[in-house]
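G., before I forget:
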Amino acid sequence: MTTYYTREHEWISVEGDIGTVGITAFAAEKLGDVVFVELPETGKSVKKEADMAVVESVKAASDVYAPVSGEIVEGNQAIVDEPAKVNEDPEGAGWFVRIRLADKGQLTGLMDKAAYDAFCATQ
Amino acid sequence: MSEVAHGPLKTTPLHAMHVRLGARMAEFGGYDMPIQYRDGIMAEHNWTRSEAGLFDVSHMGPSFLALPQLGGGDEAHRKVAALVENLVPSDIVGLAPGKVQLTVLLNENGGIIDDLMIGRPAREDQQGQLYIVVNAGTKENDFALIQQAAAGVATLHRADDRTLIAIQGPKAEQVIEAIFPEAVALTFMTFREIEDTPYGNVIVTRCGYTGEDGFEILVSAEHGEAFANRLLDDHRVKPIGLGARDSLRLEAGLCLYGHDLDATKTPVAASLSWMISKARRERGDFPGAQRILAELKHGVPSKRVGIRPLGRAPAREGTQIQNSDGETIGVITSGGFGPTVNGPVAQGYVDSSYAKAGTPVRLIVRGKPLDAEIAALPFIPTRYKR
């Protein structure tokens, strides 16, 4: 299983043609306490870099973008019921959705952990 | 989000302290201010409602309007009070010694230029002076307006280079008792000067912007950090940023100028009619009186109300409010999440026929209608020391 990162601070962990997506610890920390999450419906088609989900802190709403194109196969109801889970474990139990990838080739354009960490240092 | 170019930002006397405490800083009212510290907005909000929160509000506009000679008893007070009555609809002439009045500056259309506090000193030898505190973002214009109204009779002395600290929460009284024991006798909306303290002469007002009991304390710039450090030494006190300041005041039903109040809103529309004193209504001698008196008699088209979304999604400023037929009936002017209420809360203006608490409405959030209801303000019980 390999994890990739986007410039919008999403992570995607891919196994076969299924990617689990969430926001990074860096993003969660910047966002502050999450109070509301809105996920796309199962079966919905998403396009790389388009709006996919909404995450809100006390102060503001933020968009979560799809790291790759594909179909939503599962949403994490746990973070809808308990938004604080996103802050508790953003890169684990705080995952947002699972996507069936339409084109695994899109992963080559994403960053690995080392590149993402270097990117965060410039933010 | 695009960046607007600023000149260099102003800083308060506590700026270095905020940075040292690890605050996330951002611009507010032309100042570089702490939005939150390391614990985050939710923790800071909850701490204020259970312990005592320390807020740097030195960016605001404390000032003194004074006759050339002080100490002339009621007559001196009447003389300086009459000057500000030219700008506000409240009874300032009749203010008791030591009392503070929350009121609004009005334009000729009866619209609100700013909300502010005006205090009459308790001391005999300070009659002829008023303690006036205005908002940060509007203070240059406010000060000019007040000075203009007082021209030739009184002088406005700005004190916004000093440190103004708010300490708010159920433990605030005990915290302050250990430093300024005389302050504890103050009740809500009264103030006094305390002289020769370890922090110089200070002005303590029992008021705040959170719905909790607490104080706002004006200290010289030189003593500001020492006083703030003394407060933070008390384990019941934590520093609180502007993020939590906003969620606290929103839950308490308090207005934020520039959002819930602006020059197009009269105090009647803003549900602040209580500021329009009976004596002033009878005389009709304030800006926009004709319009305001007509509104008091016949009603207003649209009123400020509380709005409670019924789901979990917050509805923020600018959100359209509709009735169940999908007709637009209003707009949200402040909205977010209330940690104490543990849900979304908002304030806005709706057509008066929908203004009753419990009225069902819809909020258009991300293009979809979400159920909500009109709610009485405040969202939480206030705990002022009356």
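Chain B touches chain A at residues 35-36, 40-43, 45, 243-244, 246-247, 312-314, 316, 336-337, 339, 344, 366 (CB under 8 Å). The first strand of chain B starts at residue 24 and ends at 28.

More on Monday.
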